[in-house]
Amino acid sequence: MLTTEQNRDQLHGTLERQDDASRDDEKWKAVQSRDDRFDGAFVFAVRSTGIYCRPSCPARLAGKDQVAFFPGPIEAEQSGFRPCHRCQPREAGPSPKAKLVDQVCRYIEANVQGKLDLAILSRHVGLSPYHFQRTFKKVLGISPREYVKARRLGRMKRFLRNGETVNDSLYNAGFSSRSRVYEDVPGGFGVNPGEFRRGGEGLRIRYSIINSPLGRLLVAWTQGGVCGVCIGDSDAFVESSLAEDYPSATLHRSDDEMKEWTGAFAKYFEGNRLDVNLPLDVKATAFQSRVWKIIQSIPFGKTTTYSQIAKELGAPEASRAVARACATNPVALAIPCHRVIGKDGSLRGYRWGIERKHTLLKLEQAANPETVQKTTRQVPGN
Ligand SMILES: [Zn+2]
Question: Of the CATH numbers 3.40.10.10, 3.90.25.10, 3.30.200.20, 3.20.20.60, which one belongs to the domain with range 4-70?
């Protein structure tokens, strides 16, 4: 006699071995009979509602043509589906594939400074390199190599942010040499798009640093417009922040140029609005650009909340993603993410420090909101 657990494993194993078409038939049968033995083996999503469920969900069933199957919650959410409130498919746990990938990701995290090639990683989970690579890519949308690199870049950014030198940050993050960082920075990531922003390859960026009531303020621009605004205690800090956002760009300090732009920011601190026509040149995912557009429409001196923006986007559950889009805003003040606060009135976070957010909001509230300042819409030479 099989235990429930063995029975379940056997059923799930049968599914794995079938070809796609008969597997989908099998899954559809399980869904129609709301067979809870298949919970955890896969989830199904309904295209018309954008919701995904576990096989046993008691909610009314859609037609088969509306249904798509996914190995687990992670995969369904990557395709933009939201979990059903009724059957809570996340609780059924990730798919076996997602679990395996999760295991590898933990291993990578723990051994990020060591050697992490395909052979080592696949051996860790007992799969052939080929099978492992395929599975990994299917779950996360990127190859193990790209993932390792992205994790190292993320760590490097943290070290830089904590004030470590570029070389120390590189080695502590597990890169064997400086050139390894700049080669093939992968674009088009399926995970954490803000973190894996394009590195600015081939981009020539000029910047200037001025004094402000918040500390040193760096304004950077490309031929297309302002691409970075960083605030910090020292020139070294704001310069390394810019380098984090554009690791592959050529950066050149040029204090004498574009005084009207840095001047616009200086005037802002005297209580004037920033010209909304200030040309910006920032890379964004579709989601980031929708969030940033809404943020740009928040009037000077006013605030809104993360959840309000999520609602405006038509995605009321996305307030954490909205907060992430704020945290990855490369142009402080020009995209005034300091005007976004928590529902309870707390300030939550700010990339340049919560005290600065507080100061900015106070400054705006004290200023005369009727003064609109003009800046030229000149595009700089490069
Ligand atoms: Zn459901």
Answer: 3.40.10.10
Using the mean position of ligand 1's atoms as its centre, give its distance from the Cα of residue 27 in Å. Answer: 15
Is the pLDDT confidence value at 372 over 80?
no
pLDDT tens by residue, 35-66? 887 888 889 999 889 999 999 898 888 888 89
Give the CA distances from residue 181 to residues 133, 176, 221, 381, in Å, rounded to whole numbers and listed in that order.
22, 9, 23, 29
- Ligand 1 center to 297 CA (angstroms): 37
253 bridge partner residues: 207
Distance from the alpha carbon of residue 139 to the mean position of ligand 1, in angstroms: 22
Q: Where are the domains of the chain?
A: 4-70, 94-187, 204-258
Q: Enter the pTM of the model.
A: 0.48
Phi first, then psi, for residue 227 (nearest 5°) are -115, -10
Q: Long-range contacts for 13-22 (Cβ within 8 Å, ≥24 apart)?
A: 15/41, 15/42
The Cβ of residue 158 has, within 10 Å, a number of other Cβ atoms equal to: 14
